[in-house]
Amino acid sequence: MEIKELVYNGAIPIFDLSKLEKPIEELLLQIGGALTEVAVLLKGADGQAYYPSVVSLQNEKLKELGPKTIDLLRDVNIKVKGLIYVHYDEYLSEEYGTVESGGRRTEGFICPINEAYQEQFLKILEEVSQTEIDDIILLLTGYASALHCFCENCRVTFSMDRKMPVNFNFSLLQGDKELYNEWIEWRSENIKAFLSKITEKTKELGLKPIFTVELDPNFQFEEGLKPSLGIDIKSIANFFEHFIVMVNPWEVILPPVQSKSFKELVQRVRNVKQQTNRNISLMYWPPSGEELKPLLTINEEVKSKGLYVFLQYPDQFKNWRETRIITP
Ligand SMILES: [Zn+2]
């Protein structure tokens, strides 16, 4: 769908400045009057920063143009939220990458317990806080999939003080219920600990963090967030005032309004709202003409604060999907 049509239907566009087809001034002339808010991707999946950075790779074109675009939007009273991938960065993953149970490194995804990466990420937050964004949306947070992370650091750390071999894999955990439960708890504590550091840092920087929940049937919606991504929404709810629910991000299709699966999807979004007791908004990839209606209907039914939509699928979408939906 055209950006114009999306905006006139009340959706909030997510700009990837490296892919913007026309200058922002031109876009503002065309639809500026209808725009009240946008989200702007601050760093590409390839690790390039769209703002001046010494920590990350620098996108030269957007070094000045990124912050300037944010200023231009703010000048016409458009709210600007920044958006950043938390555990995905193709450049930094060369050093801090995550490993699947079978020993395979997973391109782009980051090991959630890597402390050196965590420090880098907090520095990235300091850098992005120099731009004029109001809030920061955290996307792609958590373990890459249910079969992560089996890097050496994770295996050594988890096996320490437990009677088990250090070269364990997922099958070993699966065969021992008690051990498996400990693994699941340990992973979610790791994510919680990092989110705690992030929220402390953002508070210090005067930024409001917003957490994106991937709500997908491939991992039983909210029920599967903990075993798959290590995210326990109830236990992290206090860190955030606001959650964004990404609906069916890996299913890539939205059920038609009135269908049984549509009703289930609405209920699942409500579950997130109830379990976190927070305001929620929705997010989706670039919707097709048929998908906008289900999205707007969910938006209304759950009293969501807004619908964020991407304008293009990210280049990495296929890889992300294949990784996210791995089931043991
Ligand atoms: Zn690891």
Briefly note the CATH topology name: TIM Barrel
The H/E string reads HEHEEEHEHEEHEHHHEHHEHEHEH
Alpha-beta classification: alpha/beta
Tertiary shape: globular
The span between the termini is 36 Å
Stretches where pLDDT is under 50 for at least 5 consecutive residues are: none
Percentage beta strand: 15-25%
Please give the domain count: 1
CATH class: Alpha Beta
Largest sheet: 8 strands, parallel, barrel
Assembly annotation: single chain
Question: What are its keywords?
Answer:
328 residues, alpha/beta, TIM Barrel, eight-stranded parallel beta barrel, two-stranded parallel ribbon, 12 strands, 42% helix, globular, binds zinc ion
Overview in brief:
The chain is α/β, with parallel strands linked by helices.
Please describe what this structure looks like:
This protein has helices at residues 3-8, 24-31, 60-75, 93-96, 115-128, 152-159, 170-174, 177-205, 225-229, 233-236, 260-276, 289-301, 317-324, and strands at 12-15, 37-41, 48-49, 57-58, 79-85, 97-99, 105-110, 135-139, 208-215, 242-247, 279-284, 307-310. It is an alpha/beta fold and 328 residues long. The chain has one domain (3-324): Glycosidases (TIM Barrel). The strands form 3 sheets. An 8-stranded parallel barrel has the order 1-2-5-8-9-10-11-12, surrounded by 4 helices. Strand 10, helix 11 (260-276) and strand 11 (279-284) form a beta-alpha-beta unit. The longest helix is centred in the middle third of the chain and has 29 residues, at 177-205. The protein is globular. Bound molecules: zinc ion. Residues 98, 111, 113, 149, 151, 153-154 line the site of zinc ion.
